[in-house]
Amino acid sequence: MDTHTPTDTSVTAYTHHALLWIGPDEVLVTKTHEYIQRQLCPHDGCSNCVVCKQITQHQHHTLLWLEPEKNYTLDMIDQLCNTMAYALTSGTSFFFVLQRADTLSVACSNRLLKALEEPPIGYQFILLAQRTDTLLPTIRSRCVMHTWYEPASTNTHWQIIEYFTYKKVASATEFLAFIDSSLLNEYQSNIIMDTILNHWVRAYQKARLKNDVDAFTHIYQVIVQLYAHIEKPPMPGSTKLFWKNLFLQMYG
User: Fold this and answer.
1) Residue 6 lies inside a defined structural domain of this protein
2) Residue range 47-103, pLDDT digits in tens
3) N or C: which terminus of the chain has fewer CB atoms within 10 Å of its end residue's CB?
4) What is the CATH number of the domain that holds 118?
5) CA 6 to CA 172: how far, in whole Å?
6) Are residues 168 and 109 in the same domain?
7) 66 and 127 inside one domain
8) Strand order across the 123-129 sheet
9) Which of 36, 38, 31 minimizes the C-alpha distance to 61?
10) Which runs of consecutive H residues, i.e. helices, occur in the chain?
11) Which stretch of DSSP H or E encloses residue 57?
12) Of the candidates 104, 132, 149, which is a domain's last residue?
């Protein structure tokens, strides 16, 4: 499916039974609340009524919001499948929201796939993820994908991006102190790493066009280091160690 940036969250904007939304976690949660509120709220998504508050609290009776503490389990997917065993009254809807869908294991993805293919009328899936490379192609192919991009979410972490794009010079002591005081988590780190990598890929392309051998040789080494870390993203609780190791390897 094509990826684009939607301009609204109206009911008519999304009619497919399976949606895959990519973006920063806090943005995705807000957009999902707004989207479901517009469909269920009797006041067109007022945000203040009982229905709207139940949605933001993930307690509405036509909403099953899944958010794993660490990883999805087959029991969580079975809960979803068991819910679909009940036919809905004509004209009603039920929403499954899978937050952090990019953490689905292969086994969970394969079980979810059966539910995604042909759900009963009225059931809708919204998969929220910060990146798509960890999602099975079979999952992506069955969803209409939209990318929610909000520059402010990246700008929040501009300082760490500058450390790794040579826009800010820092000693190891300064950087380690900065990381120790940060509130980064593993999901935010994945987005920041993508931003840093994109910067260096563009720099490499420019150096190649200019035939600047010294520059593109150096940049190539940087990209290799970044890819090595992207392939081993931080696990819960290891985010600060991840960034410290990357900094020391690149600048040590």
Assistant:
1) no
2) 889 999 999 999 999 999 999 987 899 999 999 999 998 888 888 899 999 999 988
3) C
4) 3.40.50.300
5) 41
6) no
7) yes
8) 63-66, 94-98, 123-129, 18-22, 144-147
9) 36
10) 25-40, 50-56, 74-83, 106-117, 137-141, 151-155, 158-163, 172-181, 186-209, 213-230, 239-251
11) none
12) 149
Structure tokens at 104: 């689905």
52: Cβ–Cβ under 8 A, 6 or more apart, which residues? 37, 41, 45, 46
Please give the structure tokens belonging to residue 146: 């939209």
Per DSSP, what are the bridge partners of residue 99?
Answer: none
Please write the tens of the pLDDT for every residue from 182-218: 888 777 787 788 888 888 988 898 898 889 999 989 9
Assess contact for 231 and 197: CB atoms under 8 A: no
| Residue for token pair 């929040």 | 156
- Bridge partners of 213, per DSSP, are none
Q: Is residue 2 part of a domain?
A: no
Here the tokens at position 4 are: 């684009």
pTM of the full structure:
0.60
CB 238 within 8 A of CB 187: no
User: Taking the CA atoms of the chain, what radius of gyration do you get in angstroms?
Assistant: 21
First to last CA, the chain: 43
Which residue, of 101, 124, 149, is where some domain finishes?
A: 149
- Co-location of 59 and 123 in the same domain: yes
